[in-house]
UniProtKB/TrEMBL annotation:
Class in the EC hierarchy, top level: ligase
Tree of life domain: Bacteria
Active site per UniProt: H248
Any single biological process term in GO: tricarboxylic acid cycle
Protein's UniProt keywords contain Nucleotide-binding: yes
Reactions mediated catalytically: succinate + ATP + CoA = succinyl-CoA + ADP + phosphate; GTP + succinate + CoA = succinyl-CoA + GDP + phosphate
Name under which the protein is recorded: Succinate--CoA ligase [ADP-forming] subunit alpha
Free-text function comment from the UniProt entry: Succinyl-CoA synthetase functions in the citric acid cycle (TCA), coupling the hydrolysis of succinyl-CoA to the synthesis of either ATP or GTP and thus represents the only step of substrate-level phosphorylation in the TCA. The alpha subunit of the enzyme binds the substrates coenzyme A and phosphate, while succinate binding and nucleotide specificity is provided by the beta subunit.
Chain ranges of the CoA-binding domain: 4-100
Keyword annotations: Ligase, Nucleotide-binding, Tricarboxylic acid cycle
Entry EC no(s): 6.2.1.5
Length: 290
């Protein structure tokens, strides 16, 4: 079992022939991901990396049966790419692009609300189901298949958590990088819920950071639904100075409730196993699973 992506996903790359799209699509194909083509307007009918290039997402859906997309489109055009994918009937839209204007994302977010699709990101590392599909920019070799799900705002901490879990002789069902922008498609709670409802996932690692209330919302949901599976939590940014954006556009402390300390306190109250360092994640997962 897995969530969002697996060996049967039919994946296209928007921004396929650009430098970023080319590099990461090549890595995805080498991993064994079922990439069925890509989209670059004006280059339809060509072949790239041994896969067909389409002018539109609609054409990729009709001709290749695409149901999942990964977006490497420049920031100015990325929101349009999201809306085009949703319009064409793509079910999972994974947006890697960083720096999409907030006004554009608000428009895209509202546009896809009524559509039958799920947006991951933007400004995220993507989603991986080890051994089946790598739809993102993560180093695939770090991830091994197993029974631990990962939800993270941070790309590098996603890889660190996976490495920690694997070093304990365990593995990952699906790792979801939700992104660190102020406006994202799938929240921490929604991603945790996907893994909570996945039979193969026995434990969830939830990695957050300062700013916003996504982790608190997720923690309260976990408690309200009866703590069905153990959740190990970590919040990055404990030493960040107040009022300064740290790394991610969404990582800015606006009030007393979105500091690392406040989030950790809420998570602990909700029965989540909170660690103070990312280096402790693997050990804590092994402990709660034993």
């Amino acid at each position: 079992m897995s969530v969002l992506v697996n060996k049967d996903s039919k994946i296209i790359v928007q921004g396929f022939t650009g430098s970023e799209g080319t590099f990461h699509a090549g890595q995805m194909i080498d991993y064994g991901t079922n990439v069925v083509g890509g989209v670059t307007p004006g280059k339809g009918g060509q072949e790239h990396l041994g896969k067909p290039v389409f002018n539109t997402v609609q054409e990729a859906v009709e001709k290749a049966g695409a149901d999942t997309t990964i977006i490497f489109v420049p920031p100015a055009f990325a929101a349009d790419a999201i809306m085009e994918a949703a319009d064409a009937g793509i079910k999972v839209i994974i947006t890697i692009t960083e720096g999409i204007p907030v006004a554009d994302m608000i428009k895209a977010f509202n546009y896809i609300k009524g559509k039958d699709c799920r947006l991951i990101g933007p400004n995220c590392p993507g989603v991986i189901t080890p051994g089946e599909a790598k739809v993102g920019i993560m180093p695939g070799f770090v991830f091994k298949a197993g029974e631990v799900g990962i939800v993270s705002k941070s790309g590098t901490l996603t890889y660190e958590a996976a490495d920690q879990v694997v070093r304990q002789g365990l593995g990952i069902t699906t790792a979801i990088g939700i992104g660190g922008d102020p406006i994202i498609g799938t929240t921490t709670k929604e991603a945790v819920e996907l893994l909570m409802n996945d039979d193969a996932t026995k434990c969830i690692v939830m990695i957050g950071e300062i700013g916003g209330n996504l982790e608190a919302d997720a923690a309260r949901w976990v408690k309200e639904t009866g703590n069905k599976k153990p959740v190990v939590g970590f919040i990055a940014g404990e030493t960040a100075p107040k009022g300064r954006t740290m790394g991610h556009a969404g990582a800015i402390v606006g009030g007393a409730d979105d500091t690392a300390e406040a989030k950790k306190a809420i998570m602990k109250e909700c029965g989540i196993h909170v660690v103070d360092s990312p280096a402790e994640i693997g050990k804590k997962v092994a402990e709660v699973l034993s």
